[in-house]
């Protein structure tokens, strides 16, 4: 049976900017009960944080706002500087929105496989300049290219460096985890989040364990080195973010690209929820965890809503098979 999809879970439109009040719509997102998937686990409740309800459309609006405002407070970000960072998409949209509201120019380095619709959101609505890196180098290629641009003219830019900025995880420590604790009335027993920058998993883990050290916190990552789950990192083969401290976690769950893509369809058909592949990976991991515990309250993060265009997975696999040792070079123009 296919459920009618509620307007509340449609891909968000770009908020119209009238003044800085739009930034007040970052945080305090709903916690959704997963009703049908996992129904066989009678004593396990599964919830997902609907982070697409943030202004900017994703979980990344929280750390983007914190990093920019901390930059202002420190004096490193001034009106004559351009905000520069690498992104797989969501943080870039948040930077662009916040930059537009606050009056900053924004330059984003993004893998070229990030869909044109997403680039259009930023360019058309919020005026960000987009520099593309190799689609097959993923987020690491974007990181390296952003560093190169910054190094060539450091006085021109403010680079938040989301992968190494403590303000990233602190945004979740002070907001997301507090909301989860209150929304579950302290009943949460397990927390799951995908690894991108590491900010979501680290900030929530630290705060939730402050509340109750027995809460189990696990990271979700792609199972393959070359994968199609946009926004997530396979840590063994990636540049490890400076803010990511795996020793503080209770474990990791690996999810294949195929499983993630299939879960997008299941979430739409069985729950009426439209999400992207990183959220679907988190859902798959939550079900895997639920199958291995007797009872509990699992909370995960759905970072954003459904995107119409990700990596074309068939073409991705075709390229990988034909040229396994060759990666296209980044566009450094």
Characterise the protein shown here.
The chain is α/β, with parallel strands linked by helices and 333 residues long. The chain has two domains: 8-54 and 174-302, Rossmann fold; 61-162, Rossmann fold (3-Layer(aba) Sandwich). 37% of the residues lie in helices and 15% in strands. It has helices spanning 61-74, 90-102, 116-126, 138-152, 166-183, 199-211, 257-271, 277-290, 313-322; strands at 31-33, 44-50, 82-86, 106-111, 129-133, 157-158, 190-194, 216-222, 252-255, 296-302. The strands form two sheets. The protein has a six-stranded mixed beta sheet. A four-stranded parallel beta sheet has the order 5-4-3-6. Helix 1 (61-74) packs across helix 5 (166-183). The protein starts with 30 loop residues before the first strand and ends in an 11-residue tail after the last helix. Residues 1-5, 9-13, 307-320 and 323-333 have low confidence and may be disordered.
